[in-house]
Amino acid sequence: MNKADIVDVLEDIAVLLELKGDNPFKIRAYSTGARVLETMEADLGDLIEAGQLSAVKGIGAALVEKIETLHATGELAYYTELRGSVAPGLIEMLEIPGLGGKKVKKLHDAIGVESIDTLKAACESGEVEALKGFGKKSAEKILTGIANRAAYAKRHHWWTARAVALPILEGLRGLPQTERAEVAGSLRRLRETVGDLDFIVASADPQPVMDWFVTQPAVAEVTAHGATKSSVRFEGGLQADLRVVPAEQFAFALHHFTGSKDHNVALRQRALARGYSLSEWGLAKKGEEGDLGAVPRSEATTRPGAERPGPNELSAIKTEKGLFKFLGLAEIPPELREGRGEIEAAETQKLPNLVTSADIRGVFHNHTIASDGRGTIEEMAAAAGALGWDYLGLADHSKASYQANGLDDARVLRMIESIRAFNESGASAVHVFSGIECDILPDGSLDLEESTLDALDYAVMSVHSSFSQSEEEMTARVIRAIEHPATTMLGHPTGRILLRREPYKIDLSKVIDAAIANRVIIEINASPRRLDMDWRLWRRAAERGLMCSINPDAHSMEGLSYFDAGVNIARKGWLEKEQVLNSRDCAGVLRWFSQRK
What we know:
Blueprint: H1 3-20, H2 24-39, H3 44-50, H4 61-73, H5 77-84, H6 88-93, H7 101-111, H8 116-125, H9 127-130, H10 136-152, E1 156-157, H11 158-173, E2 180-183, H12 185-188, E3 193-194, E4 196-202, H13 206-214, E5 219-225, E6 229-234, E7 239-245, H14 250-258, H15 261-273, E8 276-279, E9 282-285, H16 312-315, H17 320-326, H18 342-347, E10 362-363, H19 377-386, E11 391-397, H20 409-425, E12 431-439, H21 450-455, E13 460-462, H22 471-482, E14 489-490, H23 508-517, E15 521-525, H24 538-543, E16 548-551, H25 563-572, H26 586-596
Parallel strand pairs: 4-7, 10-11, 11-12, 12-13, 13-14, 14-15, 15-16
Antiparallel strand pairs: 1-3, 2-4, 5-6, 6-7, 8-9
Helix pairs in contact: 1-2, 1-7, 8-10, 22-23
């Protein structure tokens, strides 16, 4: 287990001990040990091998033993037993924003709260409000957190859903009865989160396909097992539906179940205006579809006597491209099918030439072991090289992000020197740019000296604190940072954590105006938990001249691959490669940076 993982375990132990009401000195020892370990610049493995870990101030003998065990085995019996000794309901309550170990214990001890359900009831009854240290606003905030948690539980990150879907799709395509198979729904449209999975298969023999689908090892529950439709729920809570249709209906079913609802309604209206009825099972001339429109969705593909389109031009439609062409449209990529002008653009041949993952030549917002990352300069550069990139930007946290071992000015300057030495060594074909993720302080000032910022190749400015500011305060704060000459990029501009934390209040229209006026880039933070700035804002902003950078916010070598999720959002935002800084080669990026100096 690496250092960052061990820090996570120590922090978790401290919280669990708080829940149990253990000795405050013991709790503090684990918290202190986590901080010391996190900020320690020496290599942990080297210290352990040399027997010098006990010499590090703040790490006592008991912690040394546990850290060495975790480092060697990745497991710790003490931690496993401690976690098992705490009621699961109390641990779940920690998922509510604003509730830490101390507050959860107080709620448990004072009013007997043991689960999220009992916490909700206590908030609604006024018990939490009356409890010293809480009050009315705290109770309201807890109720909001509980409501959000319930809503979030119904959806899953796109990245997680894709990991579940791809093996299923591969398995379906490998069945001898399958002629064609695709994933549909919000996963195919590249939405940030996914409610469930939809699979469409073309087959003349659906039963073996259905039987395979419901007997996959990861299936926790079979909720339906029919002749042409089955539904299952996986162990992680994600539900999946499978529909098997005849080959001639496949393109229509795939289009329909890809959605969105708004896109489908608009396309049906277009078909009606041309004298046709469009549904999930095909196209038919108006007046020739019989009662087909009344067929329930679950029976639509098998209803006896359902009329098929007669004319040759209808029966010749085998693909979605053919369907769009028949209706006088260019093929609309699934990610643009949101009812936001894509049909009008397709009619006039004005759909964008969307950026692709292959266009990305490097990324900028990434962390190393210097702050809270898990890779060295060398390791991160090697991972970038494996992805075929020309360059990599490293932007560790600044000192205000103390919880992330942020760098002060002296450490930033040492990091710049380390990156310079790495580039000059010729050890890698990947050029490393020196950057920083600098905190935007509550008043809009920046967390580092101007001379330090000037020494960097670029700077990503981000908000990491004081999320409760009013919209006016937050907007002014961010705009002040944008107007600073050292600002190259604005990081995750709303601070949202998908399925976890709502955005802070900010007027993004004013922020976008300021970024354009000051030639500041706004990133698409490609972390699957962020994907911020939201895709709905990008089309108009980019048309007005806003430049984008797709940044994975990687904290490990593996995290660099998150850039794919950022490309999804760029595509949903109608972005072309020319509007994305990191589609440029290294020389082009250098020119951009130098022109802003």
